[in-house]
Amino acid sequence: MAPGEDVDSGVESLPVSSKDMTPEKPKALPELEDDDEEDLDETLAERLWGLTEMFPDSLRNATYSATTGVQSGVKGFYSFSCSAFWVIFSSSLVLFAPVLLEVERAQMEEQQRNQTKQVLLGPNSAMAAGPPR
């Protein structure tokens, strides 16, 4: 071919109407509808598992190790916190319960003394005696 020559493609030029320019919507094929139904049956976990194939093995192994490490760490922390709570609660009960009971007993004795004074000496005597010692 020489430069400047027009090449005839053999296709005749046809008049184009505006109707021919609008794209037609593709009709749904029965095969595509079946694929859509199969996709709906797939769970999220199955889709995520399928996506793991696009990552290298080293990244998958590192992610697995990190996940299991975090999981075991959370379980260990939960177990430790339960044990620590039990030890702290039971120790505080053993240490502070006798003190609280003794304070309550002292208050009851003081009330009994005041009541005895009131009965023996009259209603104004408990107030006139002043603060208890």
Automatic annotation (TrEMBL):
<dbReference type="GO" id="GO:0005741">
    <property type="term" value="C:mitochondrial outer membrane"/>
</dbReference>
<keyword id="KW-0675">Receptor</keyword>
<keyword id="KW-0496">Mitochondrion</keyword>
<dbReference type="InterPro" id="IPR005683">
    <property type="entry name" value="Tom22"/>
</dbReference>
<keyword id="KW-0813">Transport</keyword>
<dbReference type="GO" id="GO:0006886">
    <property type="term" value="P:intracellular protein transport"/>
</dbReference>
<keyword id="KW-0812">Transmembrane</keyword>
<comment type="similarity">
    <text>Belongs to the Tom22 family.</text>
</comment>
<keyword id="KW-0653">Protein transport</keyword>
<feature type="transmembrane region" description="Helical">
    <location>
        <begin position="77"/>
        <end position="101"/>
    </location>
</feature>
<keyword id="KW-1000">Mitochondrion outer membrane</keyword>
<keyword id="KW-0811">Translocation</keyword>
<feature type="compositionally biased region" description="Basic and acidic residues">
    <location>
        <begin position="21"/>
        <end position="30"/>
    </location>
</feature>
<keyword id="KW-1133">Transmembrane helix</keyword>
<keyword id="KW-0472">Membrane</keyword>
<feature type="region of interest" description="Disordered">
    <location>
        <begin position="111"/>
        <end position="133"/>
    </location>
</feature>
<protein>
    <recommendedName>
        <fullName>Mitochondrial import receptor subunit TOM22 homolog</fullName>
    </recommendedName>
</protein>
<dbReference type="Pfam" id="PF04281">
    <property type="entry name" value="Tom22"/>
</dbReference>
<feature type="region of interest" description="Disordered">
    <location>
        <begin position="1"/>
        <end position="39"/>
    </location>
</feature>
